[in-house]
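Notebook entry, structure prediction.
Reason for the run: the old model in the group folder had no record of what sequence produced it. Starting over properly, with the input documented here first.
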Amino acid sequence: MDKERIAEQFAQALQKAQTQMVEDILDLQRTLTRSEFISLISTLDVDEYIFNKIGLQKDLDKYISSYQAVLSGMEFTGAVTEETLLALVRLDEATFRKQISSMGEQVIDEAVKGIIGGKTEREIAQSMLGNVLRPDQAETLANTALNTFERNVTAEMAVNDPPNATYVYQGPIDQKTRDICLKMMSSGSLTKDQIDSQYPGAFVDGGGFNCRHRWAKETSVSRKLTDPKEAKDFIENKGGFKRTPLTPQQQLEQRG
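New structure, fully documented this time:
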């Protein structure tokens, strides 16, 4: 399954919805008096407007349905209850709704402040557009959610694995691959305790935001999807690491 393509399609739908919202608000501002506009816009039901009137709900539903495709593409090496899977999906859907609603509220706030502040239509439009999610931001959020969901399912499957079970880090090796992901991929098979010791937090976080990789239980299938030698060669060809690669958790601990 092409998770990046799914994320791109959702980002395009969100961009279209955001643009429509800004245009509709500017149209209202042109046709109403100052007090009428402020009164109407301040009582707008943002969720109803964005998800139903503009129609973003169907695009969000389509994106959330892709989680089933993520599951279909995974090798199930342990038990995961349907209740847990549904809970993980619901949490992600709620997060997206909250982020989109927050964007809408900020756009409206900028419109009202612009009118009260006597800004020109151009200035108001710029202020509103400054609070929408850029296509690359929306795509990153959507892609990160899909990959994190996959890692969460993997972590749930690993709960009942024996201590000597081993895992391999799988995913693409290319110019976009982070150093920490190259390092984890070059490590070969490790137990969960070894992963947690050497790469704390990475079993669920992977290499960080927008990471395309995950630790998977070592099987005849997963071994075909990772190549420690290829990762080592890639590291060598790029001249090694300029600094020691760290997991997101290690980076936070270092800053703290």
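Summary: The chain has 13 helices and three strands.
The old model has been moved to the deprecated folder.
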